[in-house]
Specification:
This protein is an alpha/beta fold. It has eleven helices and 17 strands. It has helices spanning 19-36, 50-56, 69-77, 91-102, 114-127, 152-162, 183-206, 219-224, 244-249, 281-284, 351-355, and strands at 14-18, 39-42, 64-66, 82-88, 106-111, 132-137, 166-172, 213-216, 233-236, 259-269, 274-277, 301-304, 309-318, 323-327, 343-347, 360-364, 373-376. The strands form two sheets. Strands 2-9-8-7-6-5-4-3 form an eight-stranded parallel β-sheet. It has a six-stranded antiparallel barrel with strand order 10-11-14-13-12-15. Helix 4 packs parallel to helix 5 and helix 5 packs parallel to helix 6. It is elongated and about 70 Å long.
């Protein structure tokens, strides 16, 4: 893309990435983890782009987390050889992962059952490689994993051993932290995540199993942890771009949001208090994560083309290719007069979900509107 391209000339809807904010967000968490002496293993499911990864790792490939085998294969093709697949494995996942391992990729899998341990062992034998896996630990009832008091914790470790699978360590994710909104609650969630993971590793070691890696991670707990004693690595992803859910949790401000969707005004219904744009849920996603928070941001906050927020103007409704802008209920703000053709930007609820709707990023740096590059994104599974 020509360096002369500008936001006001882009066809819409378009996904916009501000590298000035991206780099600031990256530096913030990288510095924080360095202070703890903990390895940061960024979750690439958020950016899904080798160009973005080069901002995360400017000195060359580093340790990453992935959530799909498509991501794993894509980043392996770009020289990333140290990765954790942080989703429970299925037989086909194990087979694809072992092919990567045979090619020299140190990919570690995630499981929480004896059955999965056997499946992974068989996949490793078929490719002639030794698999490695984390046992997933449930620290807050959010999703999968084993409770630390569950006898299956030791049973799964034993099954890994008999199946010829190396126990990489334990991995947990404080997903319930996304529902919190005070520093005190977030600090407590981070400490619980840490303590549970460390205790799981202690129990495994007491049963005779090596447990070298203690992996924790969510963007909220990564930013609010006060101690990471016993933890060896932190995983986080949305911190790179941030979004309105993270702003509602209290991890960032709207000025930290590096991602937006460029849209164009395509109609007005002043008698209804509506402005229509050409970005519906196909461009913004259906994610309504802020609906459960103290402040519901609809399908996104609206800014002008330079990123200045219009007071209380939301994408109140979204159909497939239409977005309806309206003033937040109860607000005294007035609907702005935006002529048809006006370019706007929408700040998303969930950066990962919104990014997944698009093939590429249009890259800017700061508010001047110059588009300096177009970065493709990896899609699929």
């Amino acid at each position: 893309m020509s360096t002369k391209s500008r936001l006001d000339t882009l066809p819409t809807p378009a996904l916009i990435l501000d590298t000035e904010r991206l780099d600031r967000n990256l530096a913030r968490l990288s510095s924080r983890m360095a202070g703890f002496g903990v390895t940061l293993r960024p979750h690439m499911k958020t950016v899904k782009s080798i160009d973005a990864a080069r901002h995360v790792f400017p000195d060359g490939p580093g340790p990453i987390t992935v959530s799909t085998m498509a991501e794993a294969e894509y980043f392996a093709g770009h020289g990333y050889l140290d990765m954790t697949y942080a989703v429970g494995l299925a037989p086909h996942t194990a087979e694809r992962a072992m092919r990567l391992r045979k090619d020299g990729v140190d990919i570690k899998l995630l499981l929480d059952t004896v059955e999965q341990a056997h499946i992974l062992g068989q996949a490793g034998q078929a490719e002639g490689v030794t698999p490695a896996a984390f046992i997933e630990i449930d620290c807050d009832g959010h999703r999968g994993g084993l409770r630390i008091e569950d006898p299956k914790l030791i049973e799964v470790a034993a099954a890994l051993q008999t199946s010829g699978v190396q126990l990489a360590g334990v991995l947990t994710h404080a997903g319930e932290s996304y529902g919190l909104n005070t520093p005190e609650a977030l600090e407590a969630a981070a400490e619980n995540e840490r303590a549970v993971a460390v205790e799981a590793a202690t129990r495994l070691r007491a049963a005779g199993h090596e447990c070298p890696i203690v992996s924790v991670g969510s963007t909220p707990t990564a930013h609010f942890a006060r101690s990471l004693d016993g933890v060896t690595e932190m995983r986080a992803g949305v911190y790179m771009l941030f979004d309105l859910v993270m702003q509602g949790v209290g991890v960032c401000s709207t000025d930290d949001l590096a991602l937006s969707v460029l849209a164009t005004v395509i109609g007005k219904r002043p008698e209804k208090g509506w402005i229509m744009i050409d970005a519906g849920w196909m461009a913004l996603s259906r994610d309504r994560g802020t609906a459960a928070q103290r402040v519901d941001q609809g399908y996104g906050l609206v800014t002008d083309i330079a990123g200045k927020i219009y007071p209380d103007l939301l994408v109140a409704q979204a159909s497939q290719e239409h977005g309806t802008l309206a003033i937040r209920s109860g607000s005294s703000a007035e609907l702005p007069d935006l002529p048809v053709g006006t370019k706007l930007r929408i700040l998303p609820n969930h950066a990962c979900a919104t990014g997944a709707q698009h093939e590429s990023y249009h890259v800017v740096s700061g508010p001047d509107g110059a588009v300096t590059a177009e970065w493709p994104r990896i899609r699929g599974w």
